[in-house]
Structure formats: structure tokens, C-alpha cells
Amino acid sequence: MIKNKSLVSITDFTKDEILRILELAADFEKNPHQPLLQGHIIASLFFEPSTRTRLSFETAMNRLGARVIGFSDVNATSTTKGETLKDTIKMVSNYADLIVMRHPLEGAARYASEQSRVPVVNAGDGANQHPSQTLLDMYSMMKTQGHLDHLKIAMVGDMKYGRTVHSLIQAMADFEPTFYFVSPDELKMPDEYKEFLDHRGIKYEEHKDMNAVLNEADILYMTRVQKERFADLMEYERVKNTYVLRNEMLANTKDNLKILHPLPRVNEISEDVDANPKAYYFQQAENGMYTRMAIIAAIMGVK
Ligand code: CP
User: Fold this and answer.
1) Which atom of ligand 1 is nearest to the CA of 49?
2) Which residue out of 54, 103, 130, 265 is catalytically annotated?
3) Which of 15, 76, 108, 109 is deepest in the core (most CB within 10 A)?
4) Does the annotation mark 54 as catalytic?
5) Contact present, 19 and 149 (Cβ < 8 Å)
6) Residue 57 Cα, ligand 1 centroid: separation in angstroms?
7) Rounded CA separation 87/101 (Å)
8) pLDDT, tens digit, for every residue of 79-116?
């Protein structure tokens, strides 16, 4: 039962619940005008910058007919006066029927869900999890590949700090994928995620050269090097441009290949890729709106 459940980690939802969200997202894509939440109030609390996640969540809330309260600039809140996250969440959960929250600290969303009287949806907590992104990524894979089973998924860039790849490998583990993790040594996939995959018997390879895996992949999941997570900016400068996907590199890739990126991109996908039919990152961002309508509607119990 998804109703009244918080979505903090993607592992909070079962495989069946994930598939139900994808089914609902398809329904909302066919008919986005379903004002099922008139009379409800949803809080959108962004303690960390966002473009897509916040705007697609708030568009989803508006399309569902809910009213939206919240903030996108933490400097305009009483956090700057020293108010704790606990007190902020206790207040807001008296005002709203659902809280969507992004926070720079890993574990903040779980803590918020423990303090809140209403369900909390994690819109990204530090380098930890980004479960709504995972659901829209899976919806994008389902739409473009026709299924989720046995996909070969190449993830390129920041495996260490990229919360989207951490959530995605956990959810896709139910569908027997093969993963190729491509990163410099400094940004390798953390051991805890590799141990998770070992435990589940999921195949993965680690590479430094993107060209070694490009022609194998069904999905190429490019990521930004997460500058804001580096303690040492000199290290960021050393690794920031390690991978740049250019159109000519796609010449011998599979016909069904789709290029995903949670966005924002910095330099890791050259703009000459945008016109290639294999580029799917802008449609992926649009899919986020339907997927977030599905998440909200399911948790609020109106679907
Ligand atoms: N994909 C994603 O989380 O983008 P934003 O940071 O713009 O929300």
C-alpha cells in the first residue's frame, strides 16, 4: 500500500509499488488534467538549489489541483535564525498534507519523515538518495525500451557523489541488469553499493574509459560531477571534465540506445548530441512531471 507512505529511499517501495507508479505515470501522461487533489495543500521545501525537481513537483501539484506552499531559498526562512530541521518539519506538517523536501545533508529526509505527521517525499538528500528521479528514470527506460528486464546500463561520471545513480542501481536490481560504472578513481562507486549488488547477484563492471562500454549499452546514463559535494575544490578541478560525450562517439552504438542524464549538465554531453535521436534527457525531464503526479496521487490515496 503506497497510501500515506513516505518515499525517502527507493527501497521504501517494493517492486510492485514501483511498477504501479510507472503505470500511473503513463496514465497521467495520457491525461494530465486530473484535478484529484482540490482542497489539499502540499509543502515544497527546498533547502538546496533545484530547477527540474522543484518545478516538476510543483507543476505536478498544480496539475493535480493542490495548493502549494514552501520555499526555494532557505535564506528567506527562519533556518537562518537557527531554527532546527525538526522544528521546521513539525510546523510544516501542521500546515500541509504532504511534504516534498530537498536537503543537502544525507539522512535529512529520513529524519524529517520521523518528525512529520504527514508523508515526506525525498527530493534529494546530499549524496544519498533521489528516489523520485529514479522513478522517472525507470519510466523513461520503460517507455524507450518497452521493458525493464536485463538492460545493459552504462553509468558515466560521478559514481561517488551522484545520488541518482545510487537510487537507480538499487531499484533496477529487481530487473537483472548489467551495470557498467565508468569513472575516474576518485569518483568510483562506493563499496556499500557494490556490496549490495554482490549480495543480489547483479553483474557489474568498473571502467575508466567510456569508449570501452558505449557500444554494449542499452542505456547510457551520463552524470554531472557534483561540485557541491567536494571538500577539496582542487580535486573537483582535476576530474570535472574527465568525460565528454560527443556525437561522433555514438556512431556504432546500438539502435535502441537512449542517453539519459538527470540534468543539469555542465560539459559532460556536448550540445551536438542534442539533435541525435538517441538523446533522451529533455524528454526524461518531461517524464518527471508525470511520474511526480503519480507519486503524489498514490501517496495521497487518490489513485
Ligand atoms: N535532476 C535534478 O535533480 O535536477 P535539479 O537539481 O535541477 O532538481
Assistant:
1) 6
2) 130
3) 109
4) no
5) no
6) 11
7) 14
8) 999 999 999 999 999 999 999 999 999 999 999 999 99
